[in-house]
């Protein structure tokens, strides 16, 4: 029998609900231990988003990139640091609940999914791997390279995938920098 960890999936209908829910998770000892979490980078990210977006929050989420960094670097430190992250999916306001998302077919969701970002339990660099469409930002006056990606949500048993075109970010520099500092 396989041991499967339960993932909480919550819906937030606007920025304030999403931030409040994220901050309550980040304040919990299970997310960042006994450290006081610095919310400034998360506040900056949300302040750049449009106001008419919906969010789905997955916690605890196992991010493969953070897990690699964790086992190669953080596990060797003499402090307790959790292995789980938070993944936040960004949708248009068309999505009104987790149930409406699960019952919709893939074609009706096309153009309504804007990507995701990862929040890690690190006080200095909390934003991890992300993939966001330019449409999430209130000011789109910038150039970026776009690629298309399909994302499997929390429930791969349903077979539903979300597709979007956006720009990815992976903080591998920080992981590599930490490896060099620890050598």
What does this structure look like?
There is one protein chain. By secondary structure, the protein is of the alpha+beta class. Helix content is 30%, strand content 26%. The protein is globular. It starts with 7 loop residues before the first strand and ends with a helix.
Give a short summary of the structure.
The protein is an alpha+beta fold and 183 residues long.
What layout of secondary structure does this protein have?
Blueprint: E1 8-12, H1 15-27, H2 29-32, H3 40-47, E2 53-61, H4 64-72, E3 85-92, H5 98-103, H6 106-109, E4 113-119, E5 127-132, E6 147-151, E7 162-169, H7 172-182
Antiparallel strand pairs: 1-2, 2-3, 3-4, 4-5, 5-7, 6-7
């Amino acid at each position: 029998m396989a041991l499967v960890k339960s993932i909480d999936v919550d819906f937030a209908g606007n920025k304030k609900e999403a931030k409040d829910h994220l901050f309550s998770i980040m304040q919990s000892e299970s997310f960042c231990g006994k450290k006081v979490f610095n919310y400034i980078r998360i506040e900056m990210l949300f302040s750049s988003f449009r106001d008419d977006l919906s969010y789905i929050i997955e916690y605890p989420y196992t991010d493969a990139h953070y897990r690699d960094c964790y086992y190669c670097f953080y596990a060797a430190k003499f402090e307790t640091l959790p292995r789980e992250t938070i993944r936040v999916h960004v949708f248009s306001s068309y999505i009104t609940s987790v149930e409406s998302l699960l019952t919709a077919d893939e074609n009706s969701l096309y153009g309504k999914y804007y990507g995701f970002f990862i929040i890690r339990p690190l006080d200095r660099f909390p934003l991890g791997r992300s993939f966001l469409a330019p449409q999430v930002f209130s000011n789109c006056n910038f150039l970026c390279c776009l690629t298309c990606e399909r994302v499997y949500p929390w429930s791969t048993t349903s077979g539903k995938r979300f597709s979007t075109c956006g720009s990815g970010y992976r903080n591998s520099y920080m992981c590599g920098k930490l490896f060099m500092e620890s050598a």
